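User: Show me sequence and structure for the first protein, then do the same for the second.

Assistant: Starting with the first protein.
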Amino acid sequence: MDSINFIQDLAVVLLAAGFAGVLCKRIGLSVIVGYLAAGIAIGPYTPPFSFITDVDRIQTLSQVGLVFLMFAIGLGLSLSKLGRMGLPTLLATGLGAFLVVNLTQVLGHALGWSALQSLFVAGMFVSSSSAVIGKVVSELNLTHEGSAQRALSITVMEDVVAVVMLTVLASQVPGAGGESGYGSLIATMSAFVALLVVAGLVLLPRLFRRLEARADPELQTIIVAGVLFLLAISAAKAGYSLALGAFLLGAIVAEMPQKGQIERSFSGMRDLFSSVFFVSIGMMIDVKLLAGVWLLILGLVVFVLIARPLATGFAMILCGTPPKEARRASLLLTPMGEFAFITAQLGISTTVLSPEYYPVAVGVSILTVLITPLLNTHADRIVRLNEKLEPRWLTRALNAYSGWLRQIQSGKTPPLAWRLIKVRLIQIGTELLFITGLLIFSPKLLPLLQGELFAGVGIETHVVGYAFWALIGLLLLILVVAVWRNIAAVTMIFAESVAPVTRLPAEVIVHAGHAVGAVFLGYWLYLLLPIGSLPVWGWVIIAAGAVAVVVFFSHRLVYWHSDWQSSVQDVFTSGVRPEEARESARVMMHEGLEAWGLRLEDCVVPDDAPYADHDLGQLNLPARFGCSVIEVERNGHCITNTGPDLRIYPGDKLLLLGSGAELDAARAFLLSGKKDISDGADEFSGSILETEILPPGPRAGKTLAELQVARATGVRIVGVQRGEERFINPGGAQIVESGDHLLVVGTLNELRRFRRWLKGEDHRAETASV
């Protein structure tokens, strides 16, 4: 009978979620709002009776939904994508979260919350909803705005911050047995993350290749699901959140060529179980509690709408974003996302937060989601009002700081030695974290092997222990040898670069570096190894055996490490997808557009467009509307050479450059009153916009027709600024003078040719040919 009741409960949950989700989509709200409302309607706290017979089993099933949800979030954020976002974005995200946490703790102190309660409430506020922000950006045609792209990058990174926050909170609740200090907790967690990520990058590609060779997608789905739950349980057994293990596997799989197939295979399960997760949160909301917390909800909404833009905007400014762009981006980062519900669920289940925080989290999230589009519709007015109210000395200070950072960023390229050393230091750090995780978490794994996996096989526990530690010792030897080789390489590069300056022999610097590296490595191993578990003679025997293995099998150890390193590099190189390259190129295209009063916008050619099969010269968009087509995306391929003879076909995505009114008029013409059939895929690649200054020389004083810039370099001049006067989409008769600011569009190689052309490096060749 229990099984029948469970099936009945699951049917009620899914049907309620489906109907509520359809209703919310019809009125323009997120389906998550519908899931929460469905949970409230069928939950035990809504009269006259509960539709669910066993709430606890639905809560247990919701944990499966949490695992799939975090796996999907990880799939959307690959490790290489994190690297491409750049250090300023990573720093701005971390600094913004730090400021939000501190502002929330100040609020908590004023409201009488405990330190741990304040930390949980801060955990609800540290991340925004990437889905809501993406929808707002699309609806307001902000896709090609620099502020929108920056906000999208930061909201993706905030998912990582939220996972870290969840892990910290899960280890700090009473009875969790977590470390008392945040520093040691973060260090240990970093070692655990490195252990899982490196092991996953080495082992999973081999597994997926074998499964692909069998051409059985069903087996691949089953095995990936098993690995997913295994990593989630491993994270929980290590003292962290289930979410951490699931998120890490998603980020690892996102680097692999099989990502698309796995994402499609898991989409149904993700949608099914994540709906159960959100419905279960709604079921825990007691509607009667809303009467007592509505003032708190409104107060926290006001706090979020002020604190998050202040914190994230200030963080972006400190990390190099121009102040105006940072303020506009911060207004997009206000809606709270699904991590608010996950954090609230964790806090209430561990009794840190009272049950009334369920409706608080839901109420604050829904209100911020509804208010965000209104805020960003009037973003320009809000930014101008802020500039008026802001003290002049603060405005001057922020602008001066931003200019100073831009000068530093555009300064000299770092020396070659530093670039080589930086790569080696990253490798050393990753390998040290992996070894640390191996030594910290291996003792927790051994009892599981001895007590559960091999107990029924008849193998003695001490035999399992010896075999286990022999394998761990071999892994440690491989990695320690790799760390030492990297230390030796760093020392050699450093010695060769500083020897001419210090006038010291390079050999002396190398020997000194080796001595420092040996002392550091030895002391680090001394801190990690369980020295007291064996007598001195035992460690002497182990050390002698390790030395013997290194002496006689060093080449084999180096070969194994090189093979692992090569396989990891293959994952990153094969995982770079065209759409992600387009996204990176898109971010580069926003530089300097605001100063020209221009923006970029996509327009898809309808199937029945009357101008289809015409070329751009016949359309004559610059003369008719004052805007230019700077790129055409056709069947996933990007065409950057958009000359007048380029023909336009149905389904082509045109990238238009112009002012707001010009773009509106051009879009109205191009769409010809028909509905835009764009599927929302707004990524493109190739072209970059830059502003260059025309130096004195033979180019100055001539018309664009005489210069033939496009023929000589491939770039197109789409704007000329002379003092306060601007010429948008200039014609061939436009004269350019020395000191003019030229807004040009082209690929990276074309821009390099254009810079050489400006300097006159190609002028002699042209003269000679004449």
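Switching to the second protein now.
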Amino acid sequence: MKFFKLLAPIALLGTSYTALAAESFVVSDIRIDGLQRVALGAALLNVPVKVGDTLDDATIARLIKTLYRSSNFEDIQVFKEGTQLLIKVKERATIARISFDGNKDLKDEQLTDSLNGSGIRLGEPLDRTVLTEIEKGLEDFYFSVGKYSAKVEAVTNKMARNRIGITFKFTEGDAADIKQINIVGNTIFNDQELKEQFELTDTVAWWNVFGERRYQKQKLQGDIESLESFYKDRGYIRFKVDTTQVSMSPDKKGLYITLNVDEGDAYKVAGVNLIGDIEKYRDILEKLVPLKVGNTYNGAEVTYTEEMISRYLGRFGYAYPKVSTYPEVDDETNEVVLNLNIEPGQRVYVNEIRFKGNSNTEDQVLRREMRQLEGSWLNNQLIDNSKVYLNRLGFFEDIEAEIIPVAGFSDRVDVEVSVSEQPSGSFNAGVGYGSYGGLSLQLGLEQSNFLGTGNSVGISLNTNDYKKSVNLSYRDPYFTHEGISAGGNVYWSETSYKNSAFLQRYNNNSYGIGFNLGFPINPVSRINLGVAFRHNDISELNTYEQVKDFYAVYGGDDNGDIAFDNFEVSAGWSRVTLNRSTFPTSGASTSFNAKMTVPGSEIQYFKLNFENRYYLPLNRSESFSLMSKIKLGYGNGYGQIDGNDHMFAFSENFRAGGSGSLRGFKSNTIGPKAMYLVAAQEQGGSGPIDVIDGGSRPIAGDPNQLRINEYSAIGGNAMALATLELFVPTPFLDEGAGSSVRTSFFVEAGNIWDTEFDYESYRSLPSEQFAKIYDFSDPSEFRASYGISVQWLSPMGPMVFSLARPLKQVENDKLEVFSFNIGTTF
């Protein structure tokens, strides 16, 4: 057997091989010894020699390199036995176990993902050279977060069948605290102003239990960039950080950071030039550019101008415009001329729009919301608008649009819309707790994206102490291709206010059916038209003063039982510009709805509702936003019956209080209370006080007494509610949580009134229970509350927790200290 040695030595890291020089010969056979895990066929595929080839030094060198690159072997030897080629190999051990010990800052999952990226994974051959690199990389990470005493060691343990186990042992140690941050060379701004721009800090207030002085290399780099932006946004275009020094105390527990800065002078803008092939758009761009001659140079404004020009050109098919600013700085006059070089590039049109990630939702549901069309010029504003419309559907948690060039065509692009679906069906449970009324429950089942069609199907089941109801609904938002929507609902409810502690007691069994059509006016506005039939059967009403006129006009038996059927027509207008349907942060939603019973109905009345919500973002990221909301309502009768004016059905009264209206007050208890006229008891008499029947008004000197039942809210025919709510980032959560969790501080005010009942005629009567009779028709008697609310989306569905207190209340108002609503999604 001859042992080959190459004429030109080869050094391969991590492998050993040996060969002896010899004369060339023709290979008659090839053998590979030492194979265990690797199949012979797989090994031969990496041998660039076959029987019949002439073997020389160069071929041997290539053979060894090829086998090593396969990552299967850690030792390779080549021998000649006559005319046979013998290759002896030692396979790399297979990784059979990976474990971690002592790691706290890095989770096992993070380490496993990182090792996978380096080729260290179970079942793969081990390259020992990689372990050294991993050890150093992990220690560098710990150094970057201030843990300079950290050590990482990869310990290997041999196992049977050429397998190996790896244990990464961590000694993390304690992080070094920042003892002091020094800024040297600043004269224009003091240290405190500059340190406020930093994320790193050398001081933490005693009350800030979550504050820390921990050093991180990445944060320091970000702080330097923030410092440069701070100066350049104020005209100091020549500002620079000359040197950065990070020194460590001998015990490696403290760090001292020193930044040496050169502030320079403030510069003003002497000129703004737009350069490039933009003659078609030059006039408009010059008007849009916010940079003005004579203003102090502002780096943020320059960046904004570049982005604004790119976005503007993107409306006309320029998918990849390049806008770069080249300043000409005159250090003698402290002025700068800004030359904006604009390269629009080639106009492109959309070849195809594709959707990805919509495993449950049909493509057509997404496509009909797209403002960007195939075959038209690419328009980035239309793409942004399309994302807003898709977001409003409420089917998706995240939406991204990517522009992809079409291979072989310089003027075509594809638009790929990637969505992350969220549950669109819900099973909602509401739990409320009131200071007086205890718990209430609410259940609902709805699928707003039924079978992925975008249609809404729902069944609502509600129950509490005084009401049970079932509502079946269906809505197709695109009943026609033109965007006309169609829907309908069937409902049944059984209301028994006699079981309620705070509402006027009576029963109302009702059922009905309705249909509606919606017509788009423009992309954000719609008109809705509807018809409905409703049956109401009211019974066991303890007749109170405000309802006596109603019974006098429409009849009813001695037990207060009355039934009526009504046919209704309705019309509405809505305009929605919200940026998303769930947790919006900008835009507005406005609606006006009117309904009336048709002439000839047993009761003729109309009812008007207006609502406006407006969200004002307070910063660029929209993590802070202010919401204002106003709700107005009014209803009344129209026409006459038997010489009397028609009246507003008291079962249609507006009500307020609780979640959705005035938080801090018991649900539906705001506004007028039932009044009873009772006979005065004789001196020394005993027995019950009799309620006087009839609808006649009292006169001065009447011996009767007036009782106002504080526990019997009856609602009213007029409503005005207003809310001002500030949404802020939820403490202790990162910024990315804003789309699923939000916290708000709110102030609400409003009331419910009865504008038709003559309360004035009762003022002269003595009150059995109150020294004052509240004028329920006086708008100045409003209520107000304030509080805090946390809303979040969880695997169980939407959840809301609110704490509210009254800011202005009327005596004996029923309060609700807090409420907690739970929803379960599927």
